[in-house]
Amino acid sequence: MKKTQRFRTGLGKATFGPQRRRSMGVRLGVWVFFAVAVVVSWQNLAHPPEMPPLGPEVKSQHLDYPDTFELRRQYSEQFSITHHVVQKGESFSGILSSLNLSADCAVEWQKECADFPQLEKIQPGEELVFYTPRDEDRPVKLIYQAADGSTFVFRKQGETWESQKKTPQTISITQSATGAISESLYGSCLEAGVPPPLIMELADLFAYDIDFNTDLRRGDTFAVYFRQEVKNGKRVQAGPILAAVMTVNGRRFEAFHYTLPDGYSDYFDADGDSLRKMFLKAPLSYRRISSTFTYRRFHPVLKIFRPHLGIDYAAPTGTPVSALGDGKIVFKGWKGGFGRYVEIQHGAKYKTTYGHLSRYAEGLSVGRQVRQGDVIGYVGSSGLSTGPHLDFRFYENGKPINFLKTAFPHARSVPAKIKADFLKVRETYLAALQDVGVAQADTKESGAP
């Protein structure tokens, strides 16, 4: 028999079954939950809880320190500050005059300051800073920055002057420079950033293999890795050269500085052989050769053909002439068409001669021992000569030879037991030169990388 559900209309009570009553209860509970949630959220928004303290209360402090910019402004209102870089030919008194400053203070500085520098010997590039009260011509303070990096400060305290010398710490730095020959080695190196003293040192390094009078050509290249001593951002000492590479007429020449265990310090090639040899490549530097070695040469004065077994070096009168190697003076005096003439005996095998000198080096005499590179005289035009030049000749066992084509032994070589260390140093230097575009050397050393 089927169950029936009965309903009353109007305001009467409705009668439901059990399942219907459970469904209505669930719905009522959900609505009650949402109503409570809304009420709680509204109370939190209207009355948010207090945040817990983050830490101890920080009280603002007043930082009491001087305003540097304001102090400088006040200082500049009291004094006129003049900065001057010393130019070539300027003197300290002349600088004071050109700046309309009184020279009396210089006398006071020299009188009252014990470590007063000789400002009359100032050099180009040094700097002077004068502090002068406005509308006056007598400085009350001077800062002098010398070429060696030292700084002198002169300050007037009352009626007297006080001085202070500040010597900054010397910093050693390394630097590389590279370039190509344009007009001359000197000018090209200078343009590339090689310090002037090191240009001559570079020429000395390769003086045993390169004749800078005749060998250099436009486009030949050089690279130099060197050390400098710096104070206050200024170079106070240049050198030494640590490594150098030159490519001349397609040939590559290398030099690496290295110190042997016995303290002998020199420059070596890529194989560890000393660049120093028994003889230099030329007795002069930076001058062209007026005539080369030949057995048939027209003499410009006598106008006859005769063997001229030597080399003429054209150079201005007074150019120093150096001994090609160690030896003993065996002749000094006038010798016919050679004019003032010097002969040097190098051991039992070799002899060099130097003619047409204008004068001899002071103290030069027969029997005196000379060292390689010592000045023995000066270029001239004595004897049969139409212009200043050096007549240089080289003899082996009494016979004239073309020494430019003769190979001479090296002074020393790196011992085999420390060769590995030398190669390590060499590679370090080559890496520094590679940074400026110099390719690594090809060597004959089997152990070289």
UniProtKB/TrEMBL annotation:
Residues 175-293 form the Csd3-like second N-terminal domain. Residues 307-402 form the M23ase beta-sheet core domain. GO terms for cellular component: cell envelope. Pfam families: Csd3_N2 (PF19425), Peptidase_M23 (PF01551). GO terms for molecular function: metal ion binding; metalloendopeptidase activity. GO terms for biological process: proteolysis. The keyword Magnesium does not apply. InterPro entries: Cell_wall_metabolism_enzyme, Csd3_N2, Dup_hybrid_motif, M23ase_b-sheet_dom. It is found in: Cell envelope. This is Peptidase M23. It comes from Desulfoglaeba alkanexedens ALDC. The lineage of its organism: Bacteria, Pseudomonadati, Thermodesulfobacteriota, Syntrophobacteria, Syntrophobacterales.
